[in-house]
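Journal club prep — side note

Before the paper discussion, L.F. wants everyone to see what a predicted structure for a comparable chain looks like in token form. Sequence:
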Amino acid sequence: MKKEKQQFNFRFHNPNSEEAFVDLLVSVFMEMNRKKADEAIDKEIEKKDNVNEGDG
């Protein structure tokens, strides 16, 4: 006799407004990717500095 796989159905209740939820979600993602974002910004600043040095 084969057992059927049980399916789970999750529902989450969010008591916050949509705006508050989006703000929270964005802040969490920004915090998670802060290092990567900082590195990308630094890389672009270096590129600009190198281009400006060539102008000069």
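L.F.'s comment for the group: The mean pLDDT is 87. Keep this in mind when we get to the figures.
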